[in-house]
């Protein structure tokens, strides 16, 4: 599934790196602990989190994640947006809580395994 | 492949630049053409070690050496040191403040993550002086 399909299905607001919505999404992960994401994600996963600071971009870059979905209309910090644009990491915002986002993506066929 | 060496300086509490050293090291390894799986393990280990310096210490540095056989990363800091290394290696154990934890750091998974992703890990720590982490990731299969 392409990231664009994820954006459309959840009506996400894309904040950065719109050119990279063609990326393939291989799975998904929900966590607000950075080391947990470092340990348990794979290339191409989309990451659902409430963290908005710029270190989430480093994690996504290092783990080659397809993008980051911020929950509950959380607004990314200005530094986060700048860094994400530089690194080509799409940051997307949803009005839904993490549980709902994960449920919708699971029903679309995304898994974490 | 020739041997490549370098060093990054890491400033404590500088969350704005936290992760920069690890991201740069990852780019260097990719440019050299190191296997993707090795790059991934190195990136995880370097990031966790770098974050530990940022979270817990005033300053530190990360030296790396890439040879055809292995990648070695040495991260040294200037304190405060680890009181009990066995405890620090226990998943979930952390001395991070609530403020640090609320940012998603200090979950007690850093050192265990490094252990899982390296072939060799040596920790030398003297309370009040500092900590040196020596990590080796083999490139050539033994």
Task: Describe what you observe in this structure.
With about 110 residues, chain A is α/β, with parallel strands linked by helices. Chain A has one domain: Udp-n-acetylmuramoylalanyl-d-glutamate--2,6- Diaminopimelate Ligase, Chain: A, domain 1 (3-Layer(aba) Sandwich). Chain A is about 40% helix and about 15% strand. Chain A has helices at about 5-10, 35-40, 55-60, 80-85, 100-105, and strands at about 15, 25-30, 45-50, 65-70, 90-95. Chain A has a five-stranded mixed β-sheet with strand order 1-5-4-3-2, with helices on both faces. In chain A, helix 3 packs parallel to helix 4 (about 80-85). Chain A is globular and about 35 Å long. By secondary structure, chain B is of the alpha+beta class. Chain B has a single domain (about 5-140), classed as Heat Shock Protein 90, CATH 3.30.565. In chain B, helix 2 runs antiparallel to helix 5. Chain B starts with a strand and ends with a strand.
Strand order of the largest sheet of chain A: 1-5-4-3-2
What is the CA-based Rg of chain A, rounded? 12 Å
Please, what is the average pLDDT of chain A?
A: 97
Q: Helix-strand pattern of chain A, N to C?
A: HEEHEHEHEH
Question: Looking at CATH, which topology of chain A would you report?
Answer: Udp-n-acetylmuramoylalanyl-d-glutamate--2,6- Diaminopimelate Ligase, Chain: A, domain 1
Number of helices of chain A: 5
Structural class call of chain A reads alpha/beta
Q: CATH H-level name of chain B... which superfamily?
A: Histidine kinase-like ATPase, C-terminal domain
Query: What's the mean pLDDT score of chain B?
Result: 96
Q: What is the C-alpha radius of gyration of chain B, as a whole number of Å?
A: 15 Å
Number of helices of chain B: 5
Helix-strand pattern of chain B, N to C?
Answer: EHHEEHHHEE
Helix content of chain A: 25-40%
């Amino acid at each position: 599934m392409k990231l664009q399909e994820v954006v459309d299905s959840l009506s996400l607001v894309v904040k950065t790196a719109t050119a990279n919505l063609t990326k393939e999404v291989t799975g998904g992960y929900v966590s607000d602990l950075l080391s947990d994401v470092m340990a348990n994600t794979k290339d191409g996963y989309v990451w659902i989190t409430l963290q908005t600071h710029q270190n989430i971009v480093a994690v996504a870059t290092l783990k080659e994640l397809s993008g980051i979905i911020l929950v509950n209309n959380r607004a990314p910090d200005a530094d986060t947006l700048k860094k994400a644009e530089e690194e080509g990491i799409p940051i997307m915002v949803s009005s839904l809580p993490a549980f709902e986002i994960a449920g919708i993506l699971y029903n679309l066929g995304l898994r974490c395994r | 492949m020739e041997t490549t060496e370098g060093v990054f300086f890491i400033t404590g509490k500088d969350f704005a630049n936290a992760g920069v050293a690890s991201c740069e090291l990852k780019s260097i390894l990719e440019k050299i053409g190191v296997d993707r799986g090795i790059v991934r393990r190195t990136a995880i280990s370097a990031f966790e070690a770098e974050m530990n310096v940022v979270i817990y210490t005033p300053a530190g540095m990360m030296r790396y050496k890439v040879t055809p056989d292995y990648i070695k990363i040495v991260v040294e800091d200037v304190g405060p040191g680890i009181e009990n290394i066995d405890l620090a290696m226990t998943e979930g154990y952390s001395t991070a403040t609530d403020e640090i934890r609320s940012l998603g750091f200090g979950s007690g998974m850093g050192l265990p993550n490094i252990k899982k992703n390296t072939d060799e890990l040596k920790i030398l720590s003297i309370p009040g002086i500092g900590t040196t982490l020596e990590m080796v990731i083999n490139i050539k299969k033994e």
